[in-house]
Amino acid sequence: MPLPAANLLSGSSSPYLLQHAANPVHWRPWGPEALAEAAATGKPILLSVGYAACHWCHVMAHESFEDPEAAEVMNRLFVNIKVDREERPDIDQIYMAALHGLGEPGGWPLTMFLDPAGRPFWGGTYFPRRARWGKPGFVDLIREIARIHAEEPDKVAHNAAALRDHLADRIPTTPRDLGTAFLDAAADRLLGLFDSIEGGTRGAPKFPQTQLLEAWWRAGHRRAGAPAFHAVLHTLERMSLGGIWDHLGGGYARYSVDDRWLVPHFEKMLYDNAQLLDLLGRAWTMTGKRLFRDRIEETVGWLSREMRRPEGGFASAIDADSEHEEGKFYVWSAAEIHEVLGSAAAEFAAAYDVHPGGNWEGKTILTRSLTPDHGDPERETRLAEGRRRLFARRAARVRPMTDDKVLADWNGGAITGLTLVARRLDRPDWLDLARDAYRFVSESMGRGDRLAHSWRDGAMVFPGLSSDLAQMARAALTLHETTRDPGYLADAERWLAALDRHHADPAGGWFLTADDAEALIVRPASSKDDATPNPNAVAIDALLRLAVLSGDENHRSRAEVELRAFAEVMTEDLFATASLASALDLALGLVEVVLVAPSGTDPVPLRRVVFEATDPRIVLFETESTGTLPATHPAHGKIAIDGRPTVWICRRGACGLPIGDPATLHRLLEPA
Q1: Pseudo-torsion of CA 381, 382, 384, 387, nearest 10°?
Q2: What is the mean predicted confidence (pLDDT) over 438-463?
Q3: 580-600 burial, b if ≥16 CB within 10 A, otherwise e?
Q4: What is the pLDDT of residues 585-616, one digit of tens each?
Q5: Three-state DSSP string of 53-66
Q6: Residue 280, Cα to own-chain centre: how many angstroms?
Q7: Region class of 173: left (phi > 0), else alpha (psi between -120 and 50), else beta
Q8: DSSP symbol at 252
């Protein structure tokens, strides 16, 4: 039975879908009912995929989906389905891959046209209401698509079959071992992308690209490479001074549209800030630059103040727009700054690139790129007071919407990042934030050994994805390493077991969707990174760490099998598989730090050295006796020298001499 002629999004839990619930378009949420309607009516499907913080999604909505004329054409000719890409990344991944199969670069909003069986035959991204920028007008376009579907079925069938073959095509792989020579050659090529002036990769737009920064950082440790460390440190510094950083409220925006980090698309995503925390922590330890510590503290402050839900989990994003205008909440005029700061305005304006003409479309985006801190503490104190006063003024503005759904995988990344900076900077209050978020996801989004992907006000998308199990397992292992609570270790083991049971891909790695999830036109599996690390890489990383922390070498063996399966895709696309390269780096260069601390002794000085280390390949195993290690472990039987806490550093199956002095341990763990 066809669904009633109405917009059916009002019962959704997704904030993105609810943004469209009042559209005159007869939107349906993705599901069997909408697909059945298409099958019953024979109408093609117009699939629109976006997310709540997406600026161009809002633009297309205002231009077309809120327009009665455009809606009438959509309703008459199509079954219209709206999808939140963050709530259903599986659907997004499939149809984005189809768009790439058409030779298009992709992006959001994703606009795909499907036959009544859900098979894509054409698509694009944003289409303007009226023809411009070389793009057809949206209404003219959809009329033509509907005509082709009705009058040229052979063309539609041909396109659908070609895209189906593209989606089903799996790159044949020959498992093989890759070594440090591959990683070093890959690092050299990736470092060739570095923008030596502004950091990041050359050109615009500029994204944080944390997987690339991680690969550069690891190259520095692997080869004692100052150029690789410089690439990361310079990028973090330029980002942290630029307009992509919110100088009043904290948090990094998704990306910068220009080539100097000045003009962001103003949305703030949980995953970007989560991934940057640990990199900033390592940068702070290596350089002692106050800028990096400030950005850590301010990012955590933003997470705690604006992203933490009352239940303990973290919201997913903050919108780019307010009052239908991109960035309105964040930008300033010189006159308003003078009104708020009075006699202090001139000094503030000189520091933050404020002038009457503005630095972006007649307005001012605050930036310190031109005038970084030159070490005058009194000046910086005055500027901090100016920021405080402007933040208070900004609080009275209409705020951008917060997409407050909780995503298990993004929260897993945030828990890991928070835990790492909490122990590095000795901030137990930050560790409490991480543990609260972990408790919420594991208890409120967990069912047995499974996790939901998304939660909002009790409504869940279940079962979850491989990314949820992998990221939460990684978070559990970080918490266990930090707190020595065995419950976290048990959680990691059961989630990784569930990952194998429900997601294992015979070709290597893990499918994104579970074996008992809704059947889609293909089962998505990708080895490529997007804005977050590929879940296969996260799972391999977690298995390697679990092997150390549990003493079960079967986990290491499993990780090595999966790395061999991904060798071909890594060699074919270094940039898109940077997180897999980092997992390979861990497998080849894992540093097991075994801390033997007899009961009643104080291991904290040695533990702190490990927690402050900048090498991400270090895993700490702390025990009262190495008798708990397998008999085959190189540290089995090692003792605490003179009954005092003692460290044994083990690499590639062999351990060095015992270490009881923190200064010696630091020297051995840090690059020369």
Answers
A1: 180
A2: 97
A3: bbbbbbbbbbbbbbbbbbeee
A4: 999 999 999 999 999 999 999 999 999 999 99
A5: CCHHHHHHHHHHHC
A6: 15
A7: beta
A8: B
